[in-house]
Amino acid sequence: MVKHNPLYEYAQLKRRDLPEGRRYETPDGRAVPSVTTILDKTKSEEKKQALQNWRNWVGHEKAQAIVTEAANRGTSMHSQLEHYLEHGVLKGGSNLVHQQSALMAQRIIDDYFPDMEEWWGSEAKLYHPGLYAGTTDLTGIYRGKPSIIDFKQTNKPKKTEWIDDYFMQGAAYAAAHNELFGTEIEQIVILMCSKDVEPQRWIVQGQEFRDWSDKWWDRVEQFYRG
Which among 20, 99, 142, 171 could disulfide-bond with 147, CB atoms 3.0 to 4.6 Å apart, if both were Cys? Predict the structure, then answer.
């Protein structure tokens, strides 16, 4: 079981889902956009068209069913991993989604948790004052370095070039954590498992981390420029 070391006190941010996107109310009383809202609103036309083409190809009803199933499976997998971190065991569950997500969570635990020395916060609410906020899955020490750690489920294994948003999310949370707590997090860890229980891991650091950070701040500027 990974050691819990609660070094930081993470705020309880109030979330509001509005027509223009998700907002978080920060302790100073301001409502700021979520990280995912900023990324969604500044998505390239090429990516928007690719998503629309996929929906047209599979049919809108089937596409929605696929998205909903994946979201449910992802929520369940996250819940399994959160429960494991807190209690040292998985939640289990009787329905097929819970059973599948438990297998996925167990694969992540077996393959990737041995490299995690300690965790600080799970489902940690973070914000950059006046700019953005969001929730990262985990903060802690991974392979000896302070890290933002995110868990992802996928229908099929992903190529690195398909997950730009995941790296920018990690950079956003790292910047927020560093701003709030004076840390120097410069590592993003993405731990992914497919529904067929195929694991993947990305560890982003050094110049690659700085490049994704620059891309994130470009998207923030684009969002506020309108």
Answer: 142
Decide if 207 contacts 167 (C-beta within 8 A).
Answer: no
Cβ distance 147 to 124 under 8 Å? no
* pTM (two decimals): 0.93
Give me 102's structure tokens: 């438990």
Burial 173-212 (b: 16+ CB within 10 A, else e): bbbbbbebbeeebbbbbbbbbbbeeeebebbbeeeebeeb
Q: Is 15 in contact with 197 (CB distance < 8 Å)?
A: no
- Which among 128, 153, 151, 168 has a CA at the least distance from the CA of 36? 168
Spatial contact of 170 and 150, defined as CB atoms under 8 Å apart? yes
Helix ranges (DSSP H) in the chain: 35-41, 45-58, 60-87, 96-112, 164-181, 206-225
CA distance 161 to 189: 16
Amino acid at 33: P
3-state DSSP percent of the chain in helix, strand and coil, to 5: 50, 30, 25
